[in-house]
Design goal:
Two copies of one chain form a homodimer. The first copy, chain A, contains ten helices and 13 strands. By secondary structure, chain A is an alpha/beta fold. Chain A has one domain: Ribokinase (UDP-N-acetylmuramoyl-L-alanine:D-glutamate ligase). Chains A and B meet through α7, β13, α9 and α10 of A and α7, β13, α9 and α10 of B.
Chain lengths: 311, 311
């Protein structure tokens, strides 16, 4: 009798991409990127991960072997004839604003996510930024997960509001950036935006404010997660995905859904995201160790606990 | 023999103004404002305050009596023939950006700050936002203060860099907003800007990021101070002054200059600043009690201490 299929602790679905990134000082072409890639590298620092996504035949085999080297289960990664999802973006001087110069869906246009047998009982699920319709397809296949979180973007808020609402109804945590949550709720202050979403049944809302940290709203509590102030930001691409990946990986490693553990997980997210922006592309995260991520997490904790002893 | 002149615990010098404020929804004329006014009302919640400033004969007596009712020593408040410093500003939709429509120095043009006898030994000093030349004049008169902090603005960074540098050399803490510290240091990241200022002899730097909180940099540590997420922001005018005033007042009440107490003082600053933006004009702070300010300070603390017990 064959052994039962292995079950990853964390299931991550999202885009897998080749990115060309321009900053005021540098330009890099065909970097390994995409929301699921950043999130999987980040989650794999803390827990076992199964990735679900699609790439074209131009995707470098090295990208897949890097994921595998980090223990990421790639049975859910489909390779199809054609080109990989491609994104070309340029950051302005302050690195806050970016312009998408080109987006090609390529093989992603026909993506129909199917979970390999072992994946459907993964207890922790992250629906990284893709079309809400695809996020729902994955949700329909998983069986009684402990904790599901989803990310989204302005494009889906504008073009797929109903499907996105369906996703929000079915997840434990929505992660979203500051301008997007305003767009989604049509509220000007975050406090009101959060109240509106939480009153509609969402348990937790994580609002990402970039270098200003994040706010974790839940019904009874509001928690603030600092960002690590970097001396140099090289490429902000994927910071939010890395944050979310480290968050779900760290939470899965604790096997918890308690608020204190969500906060600890968010500190790990903030730590890993800070490393993500210090270099180009997702594969830089492939070399980040848990010890280094934990050390910066301790620094973040010390930023809000004056009595915390410095190491 | 007459009793020795009373010594306020906190000395505050800055502008005292009549403000006209427009927001997308409201317009209010001739509000009692100015950096020293906001800061004094805020500091007086925690400690005894002596104010140094100048007003014209059009300044409402009610403004002075409100300060006195809060125990603010107004011997340092000079009334001169002419009109009070006047500012007219308009906030944009998001309340982040504002335009100064009109600024009239009026009696402020000839301001020559002279400290009343009791003021010169005040142990805590806040040089609120005025021309650095005037801040230096006050510094020349005080005698061995325990802790001096200064605020400034983009105008002085551009027009009085040398005098401002002289101020920075002589204070324990500089409070400044995010865009201004970039302008002052010509560094793009806050981490580098802070390192530059601290390496030039400054002990503490408090960078204000508005609704994203503040960062307190010192040589060994970096602390993050959350902002209270408000459901409605009515008038951001004076938030930074209220923060700084509550900070110095709270620190003075503790009689400390230790980092842990600076952090607690900053949480009080963040609390009081949040009340300041919930209404128009400085005099709204005249009705804020320490109990209410402390209660929101506890909420702020709970935002970064998940194990902190809710009240």
């Amino acid at each position: 009798m064959p052994p039962p299929p292995q079950r990853p602790n964390v299931l991550i679905v999202g885009s897998i991409a080749l990115d060309t990134v321009e900053t005021p000082r540098e330009k890099r072409e065909n970097l390994i990127g995409g929301s699921a890639t950043y999130a999987s590298f980040a989650a794999a620092i803390f827990s076992s991960v199964g990735i679900v996504g699609i790439v074209g035949e131009d995707f470098p085999a090295q990208g897949i072997s890097l994921l595998q080297a980090r223990g990421v289960d790639t049975r859910g990664l489909v390779i199809r004839p054609g080109r990989t999802f491609y994104w070309h973006g340029r950051y302005e001087e302050n690195m806050d604003n970016r312009t998408s110069l080109r987006t090609e869906l390529n093989v992603f246009a026909d993506f129909d996510p199917r979970l390999p047998p072992g994946y459907i009982t993964a207890p922790y699920v992250f629906l990284a930024n893709i079309e809400p319709r695809l996020q729902l397809k994955v949700l329909d296949q998983v069986r009684a997960p402990s904790f599901v979180m989803a990310d989204t973007m302005d494009l889906w808020i504008r073009t797929a509001a109903d499907e996105l609402d369906g996703v929000i109804q079915r997840v434990d945590l929505l992660t979203i950036n500051e301008s997007e949550v305003r767009l989604l709720t049509r509220e000007t202050t975050l406090a009101r935006a959060a109240r509106r979403l939480l009153s509609r049944g969402l348990n937790h809302l994580l609002v990402k404010k970039g270098e200003s940290g994040s706010l974790l709203f839940s019904r009874e509590r509001l928690l603030f997660v600092p960002a690590f102030p970097l001396e140099e930001v090289r490429d902000p691409t994927g910071a939010g995905d890395a944050f979310a990946g480290a968050f779900i990986g760290s939470l899965a490693a604790r096997g918890s859904r308690e608020l204190e553990d969500l906060y600890t997980a968010a500190l790990s997210g903030s730590s890993v995201a800070s490393f993500a922006v210090e270099s180009f592309g997702a594969d830089s995260l492939a070399h980040l160790t848990k010890a280094i991520a934990d050390s910066r997490k301790s620094q973040l904790l010390s930023m809000v606990h004056p009595s915390f002893v410095k190491q």
